[in-house]
Amino acid sequence: MRTELHVPSDLQFLNIVEQWLLGSLEIELGQEVDWPRQANRLRLVLVEAYSNVVRHAHREQPNLPVLIRMELHERDLHLEIWDYGDGFDLSTYLPPVPDDRQDGGYGWLILNRLMDKVEYRLQVNGRNCLTLEATLPKTEEPANVC
Questions:
Q1: Domain ranges (residues) in the chain
Q2: Which in 79, 87, 140, 146 has the greatest CB count within 10 A?
Q3: Per-residue pLDDT of the chain in tens (146 residues, 90 and over written 9)
Q4: Given CA atoms 19, 73, 116, 6 in this order, what sign does their dihedral have?
Q5: Cα–Cα distance measured from residue 99 to residue 109, given in angstroms and rounded to the nearest whole number
Q6: Chain centroid, CA 44 distance in Å
Q7: How many whole angstroms separate alpha carbon 128 and alpha carbon 139?
Q8: CA distances (Å), 91 to each of 37, 81, 87, in order?
């Protein structure tokens, strides 16, 4: 399955983005996946990625659209989030240090912990692309109790 969503740079659309992603996956995968666990994981990833575009990349230009592409092969999920911002130079990223009590910088860490692969490309045809990949684990069969 392959699908995409063009959505405004406005956090009011976050619920629509979540419903599109999770609804599409549930239709395609049915009960093959542990949805309570995976929905929470994907919701957190999507909130982090989409809200960063809205709050940072498109902060001064809320009229710019965000493009989200999703591809699913069996249980292998591939997401792309495209924006028109200036981009973020990953070479300047320093992971947060818990003792410093810093306010930001946790997003990249969260994405890398929750997804199997995370990649960020600057200025591809005038846009930036965050690519997120994960294999959604099968629902575990309940053990037979005698």
A1: 2-135
A2: 79
A3: 999 999 999 999 999 999 999 999 999 999 999 888 899 999 999 999 999 999 999 998 989 999 999 999 999 999 999 999 988 877 777 677 766 666 667 888 899 999 999 999 998 888 999 999 999 998 876 555 55
A4: negative
A5: 16
A6: 8
A7: 34
A8: 32, 20, 12
Using a 10 angstrom Cβ sphere, with 0-12 exposed, 13-18 middle and 19 or more buried, the burial of residue 98 is exposed
| CB contact at 8 A, 53 and 9 | yes
CATH class of 2-135: alpha beta
Q: How big is the chain by its Cα radius of gyration, in Å?
A: 17
Tokens at 48, concatenated: 């982090």
Mapped onto helix, strand or coil, the DSSP state of residue 141 is coil
